[in-house]
Amino acid sequence: MDPSKVHVPPMEDLTIDNITEKVILLNSQGPDQRLKYVLERLVIHLHDFARETRLSTKEWMTGIQFLTEVGKTCSDVRQEFILLSDILGLSLLIDSLSHPKPPHSTEGSVLGPFHTHEAASLPTGSLLSHDPAGEPLLVLCIIKDIHGNPIEDVKIDIWETDSGGMYDVQHPDREVPDGRAVMRSAKDGAFWFKAIKPVPYPIPSDGPVGKLLRAVHRHPMRPSHMHFMFEKEGWDHLITALYLRGDPYETSDAVFGVKKSLVVDLHPADEETVEKYGVKPGTLTLKYDFVLVSEKEASDLRDEKSRKALEALGRSMKLLDGLPVPDVD
């Protein structure tokens, strides 16, 4: 931007005590109210963090170098920044703020760093995983609204690891996607597929996020789970996962994704299921009903929670496109 067209307030005699207000003032020249507010709060908390911890130049540079390495580790099939967000609990926090759930609806979980957009669109009943070493699993699901009505033609994105705890994109010699698919719910809201029993696995720990975990004596393990993502116009976007009860890492997930409502049991298929779905006797079966929330229901709940949170902070705010900004009118 042409400096002659920008109004810059005087920036002289900057100190520990006045630098924050000066930066906020400088960042408040643009027209975007939400951007101004987000930057204001970011600068305030960032500067307070530095002052409270008496952050040293050496520590500041270590942080810069760490974030640089996080960026260098990212690739088309690995998102180290999402992984960092996950292990800091930020991913789950943002999802909970953006997609609040009313009672009896399906809760969200973390996306993780290995979702892709290259999964094949498969008809319901398809085989998701071709791993011969995996234990066969039959997955039977129904999608409903909070009133119990089935939801038809929902786009369902599903992905899981192989029996060794690796996603397909982690294998350098892979030729086609595996362990993932996109399906659509039927008129009765149902979808089903054949997969393999999920297994616990470590998140990638060969990069900077792994080094951070080791530095704070945390393990990198995730409990056995399967990812799901649901999309349909008029319905709130849902990213979630189902976790196996009794997994050794059920209560210590490295990325904080487990919620009690998402923990499931597996049962051997009964004779009726064996005959109906063409699986072998004793095949493990996972059954789950997903309950989606309409965009309006989610939006109204999000606005309600935002107003209550801002009132508790004692700030004069208003909502702009569902997001808080200072009320200066």
General description of the model:
- The chain has 329 residues and is of the alpha+beta class.
- It is 29% helix and 19% strand.
- The strands form four sheets. It has a five-stranded mixed β-sheet, with no helix packed on it. A four-stranded mixed β-sheet has the order 4-1-11-10, with no helix packed on it. It has a two-stranded antiparallel sheet with strand order 5-6.
- Strand 12 and strand 13 form a beta hairpin.
- Helix 1 packs antiparallel against helix 2.
- It is globular.
- The model has no long low-confidence stretch (mean pLDDT 94).
Features:
329 residues, 8 helices, 29% helix, five-stranded mixed sheet, alpha+beta, single chain
| SS-based class | alpha+beta
Count of DSSP E strands?
13
Question: Whole-Å distance between the termini?
Answer: 29 Å
- Report the order of strands and helices: HHHHHEEEEEHEEEEEHEHEE
Which ranges are low-confidence, i.e. pLDDT below 50, for 5 or more consecutive residues?
none
